[in-house]
Amino acid sequence: MYTAKILQKIKSVAEAHKNKVKDESFLSIECKDCKTRGHFNKAYHECKFYKAVSAHDGRPAEFSRKPKSPATTT
Ligand SMILES: [Zn+2]
Q1: What is the Å distance from ligand 1's center to 32 Cα?
Q2: Minimal CA–CA distance to 40: which of 24, 20, 26, 22?
Q3: Exposed, middle or buried by CB within 10 Å (0-12, 13-18, 19+), for 6?
Q4: How far apart are CA 57 and CA 22, in angstroms?
Q5: pLDDT of residue 14
Q6: Which of 33, 34, 48, 69 would disulfide-bridge 42, Cβ 3.0–4.6 Å?
Q7: What value does the mean pLDDT of the chain take?
Q8: 43: CA distance to ligand 1 center in Å?
Q9: What is the 3-state secondary structure (H, E, C) of the chain?
């Protein structure tokens, strides 16, 4: 008696879960920043508000060019 009932319960839960997963595709997600579907927010690289992290190479601009003629050393 128990097993039949439990099995039925498990089956129904699994079925419901499966349907839910199938319906809730991530494509139906709407971005909270640009209102485009397919991603959550601007952390996603296809978001138009996404900011690339590699804006600079890590060096300050002053160090990128060396002085051609060094000033008097004293
Ligand atoms: Zn977006």
Answers
A1: 7
A2: 26
A3: exposed
A4: 43
A5: 75
A6: 33
A7: 75
A8: 8
A9: CHHHHHHHHHHHHHHHHHHHHHHCCHHHCECCCCCCECCCCCCCCCCCCCCCCCCCCCCCHHHHCCCCCCCCCC
How far does the centroid of ligand 1 lie from the alpha carbon of residue 39, in Å? 6
Element holding 2 (H helix, E strand): helix 2-23
The token pair at 74 is: 């004293």
Spacing, Cα 21 to ligand 1 middle (Å): 23
Report residue 56: phi and psi, to 5°.
-135, 160
State the distance from the centre of ligand 1 to the C-alpha of 25, rounded, in angstroms: 17
Residues above pLDDT 70, as percent of the chain: 55
